[in-house]
UniProtKB/TrEMBL annotation:
Signal peptide: none annotated. It comes from the Bacteria. Keywords: NADP. This is Zinc-dependent alcohol dehydrogenase family protein. It holds the Pfam family ADH_N. It comes from Catenulispora yoronensis. Residues 24-338 form the Enoyl reductase (ER) domain.
Length: 342
């Protein structure tokens, strides 16, 4: 590499990163130039990166809404250590441990890399009681749950809350967040998921054997839930419209796509909100809200009110395809996390 005057200059440091070169192909480990933080950014040495179902959809080319164009570094969530701060950053300094939903969509480089230059607004100080792997499991899940339950539904004390998919990546965090805000929580699942839901302190509902009318009667006296948080979509969202309390009921979905009849909701005078957590990353707007949510969530975590459930199988940068397969197969016992650091 040469400087402007033609003299040879030092090459920039390199790093390892997982790159999707074409949709539908297995991501590969590559050597890339280490980024430098620009204005408003910090350079994070990434220790761990959480794997989300969205990562698999992006890899398959089935997530146009994520606006990813290969070749692209994959990965959305991170936990790591700030090593350098760019111009204008005052919230963080070198050595700070941080976590965040930091890239992998909207043209932003992802977090399955040893380093990432990240908009500081997207980060918060890592919860002190969590390991790096545990912290990396939280950002997308907790921001999604927060935007649905807090920002949209305003869940509070004495609310009756139903979480569809209460043992899932977002669902198990939503259950804990609603309880932390004083709500009584019921959650749907099946098989071993029912034990997980029960262990979280919620009342499990086996959706395979329990009809809507039955659990409405036993859980709410037939009045309906104050809040229904849907993480499944499709027919489950249609059921959600029939499960809320008249007038004051709120349905929130993170998968409100496709065509749905609003008649059951309208006849109850209830409301519906959709959550699209990627917007700040894609548009560049309202990113500081993500940082504030993560900071507030970290307080709940450090009080012992939210704890992520991790799959115990270890994965590293060279085994990302195996991590993706574990998520795709459903043969996991919690959130899959890839160890990035040495």
């Amino acid at each position: 590499m040469q400087n402007d005057d033609g003299r040879a200059g030092a090459e920039r440091p390199r790093m390892r990163a997982v790159v999707l070169e074409e949709f539908g192909t297995e991501p590969v480990l590559r050597s890339l130039e280490r980024p430098a933080p620009g204005p408003g950014e910090v350079l994070v040495r990434i220790e761990a990166s959480g794997v989300n179902p969205l990562d698999l959809k992006i890899t398959a080319g089935a997530a146009a809404h994520a606006r990813v164009t290969p070749p692209a570094v994959l990965g959305i969530d991170l936990a790591g250590v700030v090593t350098e701060v760019g111009p204008g950053v005052t919230a963080f300094g070198a050595g700070d441990e941080v976590y965040g939903m930091a890239g992998g969509v909207g043209g932003l480089p992802g977090t399955l890399a040893e380093y990432a230059a990240v908009d500081a607004d997207l980060l918060a100080v890592k919860p002190a009681r969590l390991t790096m792997a545990e912290a990396a499991a939280l950002p997308l899940a907790v921001i999604t749950a927060w935007e649905g339950l807090v920002d949209r539904a305003r869940v509070g004390e004495r609310d009756l809350v139903l979480v569809h998919g209460g043992a899932g990546g977002v669902g198990h965090v939503a259950v804990q967040l609603a309880q932390a805000r004083g709500a009584t929580v019921f959650a749907t699942g099946s098989g071993g998921d029912l034990d997980t839901i029960r262990a979280l302190g919620a009342e499990p509902i086996d959706y395979r054997t329990t009809a809507l009318d039955e659990y409405l009667r036993t859980a709410t006296g037939g009045e309906g839930f104050d809040v229904v948080f849907d993480t499944i979509g499709g027919a489950t969202l249609d059921l959600s419209f029939a499960a809320v309390r008249t007038y004051t009921g709120r349905v929130v979905s993170i998968l409100g796509w496709g065509e749905h009849s609003l008649a059951p909701l309208s006849f109850r005078g209830a409301s519906y909100s959709g959550v699209f957590t990627l917007l700040p990353l894609i548009t560049g707007k309202h990113r500081a809200h993500h940082g504030r949510v993560l900071a507030q969530a970290a307080e709940l975590v450090d009080r012992g009110l939210i704890t992520p459930i991790l799959d115990p199988t270890p994965y590293h940068l060279g085994a990302v395809a195996d991590a993706h397969e574990a998520v795709a197969s459903g043969k996991r016992q919690g959130k899959v996390v890839v160890k990035v650091g040495p």
